Amino acid sequence: MKRYLFVLFVLLFPILAWSAPRAVWDPSANAAGYTLYYTDGITEYHASTTGTEMLLSELNLVPGTKYTFTVTAYNDAGESGRIVCR
Fold first, then answer.
1. Looking at residue 19, what is its pLDDT?
2. By C-alpha distance, which of 61, 67, 69 is closest to 85?
3. For residue range 21-57, what is the model confidence (pLDDT) as tens digits?
4. Cβ contacts of 72 within 8 Å, gap of 6 or more
5. CA–CA gap between residue 51 and residue 22 (Å, rounded)
6. CB atoms within 10 A of CB 69
7. What CATH topology corresponds to 19-84?
C-alpha cells in the first residue's frame, strides 16, 4: 500500500530539478584569477572570479539575447589572451 501511495504522490506532484547554467573552463597554471568577458554585439561586459566557473545567472543576462563569451587568466605578470567559450 505504501508503494502505491508513493507512486501516486510522484505522479501527482512531480519533483523538478534545475541548476543554473554556468560557464566552466580548465584551470591555467599560475593564474591568480579569471575574467569572463561577454558581449551582446553592442556592449562588452566582464566579471572576474578566482574559481574556474561562474554562474551565468549572476551576470544579469537578458533572455532572448545572443551573447559571445571569452575568458582570460590573469596574475601579477598580466592578462592572457582571450579564449572563446563554446
1. 58
2. 69
3. 778 788 888 999 999 999 999 999 999 999 888 888 8
4. 34, 35, 37, 79, 80, 81, 82, 83
5. 12
6. 18
7. Immunoglobulin-like (2.60.40)
